[in-house]
Amino acid sequence: MKKILVTGGAGFLGSHLCEKLLAKGHEVICLDNYFTGSKRNIVHLMGNPYFEAIRHDICEPIDLEVDQIYNLACPASPVHYQYDPIKTVNTSVVGAVNMLELASRTGAKILQASTSEVYGDPQVHPQPENYWGNVNPIGIRSCYDEGKRCAETLFFDYHRQNKVKIKVVRIFNTYGPRMMPDDGRVISNFIMQALHNKDITIYGSGTQTRSFCYCDDMIDGFIKMMESDDSITGPINLGNPHEFTIRQLAEMLVELCGSHSHIIHEAAVQDDPQQRQPVISKAKELLNWEPSIQLREGLEKTIAYFKHTNTK
Q1: Nearest to 249 by CA among 183, 191, 308, 310
Q2: pLDDT category, 310, cuts 50, 70, 90?
Q3: Four-point Cα dihedral 147, 130, 17, 215, nearest 10
Q4: What are phi and psi of 191, to 5 degrees?
Q5: What's the burial of 25, exposed, middle or buried (CB within 10 Å: 0-12/13-18/19+)?
Q6: Would you please indicate which residues are annotated as catalytic (active-site) residues?
Q7: pLDDT tens digits, residue range 133-192?
Q8: How far apart are CA 54 and CA 173, in angstroms?
């Protein structure tokens, strides 16, 4: 049994990770300030004697004794990270320093949940880990993109200078149960619109592409990365390499929801990446990881969740 800290543990991915770590027999401390996380995501874990939830903002230091740290704390959808962009940068940067200091003091191994947004609007397709990206440093998405890029810098500097045992994964679009219905992400937006037979809104032409990974696959990737040899620091891409246009996604969701929605187009969003597809050869080779749940199956599970929660 290990004592494991999950920052952002009441969020979409964080709550799934807490659940999986408990099932593997570990003691889990969930840290969350509930800005985008929800107690509803973890209430079913509260009766477990090996689970503890602490309301805390990682922009403030905290002193705990832990063996591993998964640093997932940060708003991850444009609606939320653009709501208070200065806070978003602080969460990524100051929060990373605080967690790295904790790891340095305790000797804990620490995993950073980075993002495919470090690649910006890529000029290399698909995106391998050695691509340095094409990011606008002063745009409306920069608080998130550059915050996560700086966090990666901090992780590797703490590793080189203070010998902290680090793991860095770059998450590509992930979806599944416990997504917030109003978080502004494309899958939750489209599902909510389709279920209510409202127009499905595509920003731009709809030819822009994304690669969607189901949450269970992503959590398995996190754990495999954490449990890998200490020499494997990353960064490593985690995502589903199958690429779809936003128009294809909208059409699939209309079909799966049995919806009467019409697809409409509005003006493109500033700095919206036109292509997003991971190269996952490193994950396959070093972690023996690749996604097993493909888009149609994952969307069916996600739609069922949204139907259930919206009828309560």
Answers
A1: 191
A2: low
A3: 100
A4: -65, -45
A5: exposed
A6: 144
A7: 999 999 999 999 999 999 999 999 999 999 999 999 999 999 999 998 888 789 999 999
A8: 28
- Residue pair 213/289 in contact by the 8 Å Cβ criterion: no
In sequence order, the 6+-apart residues with CB closer than 8 A to the CB of 39 are 10, 53
In angstroms, the CA 214 to CA 13 distance is 10
Mention every residue, 6+ apart, whose C-beta is less than 8 A from residue 105.
Answer: none
Whole-number average pLDDT of the chain: 94
| 97/78 Cα distance (integer angstroms) | 23
- Side-chain-side CA neighbours of residue 298 (13 Å): 23
Identity of the residue numbered 254: V
Q: Return the beta strands (E) in 18-133 as ranges.
A: 27-32, 51-55, 68-71, 109-115
CA 251/CA 190 separation, integer angstroms: 10
Structure token pair of residue 110: 């620490």
Strand pairing partners for 51? 28
Report CA torsion sign: 126, 243, 194, 294.
negative
Q: d(Cα 169, Cα 144) in Å, to the nearest integer?
A: 16
pLDDT of residue 308: 84
Sign of CA dihedral 225, 294, 8, 238: positive
Beta bridge partners of 7: 31, 71
pTM, two decimals, is 0.94
> What are the DSSP calls for 1-13, one per residue?
--EEEEETTTSHH
SS3 219: helix
Q: Are 295 and 256 in contact (CB under 8 A)?
A: no
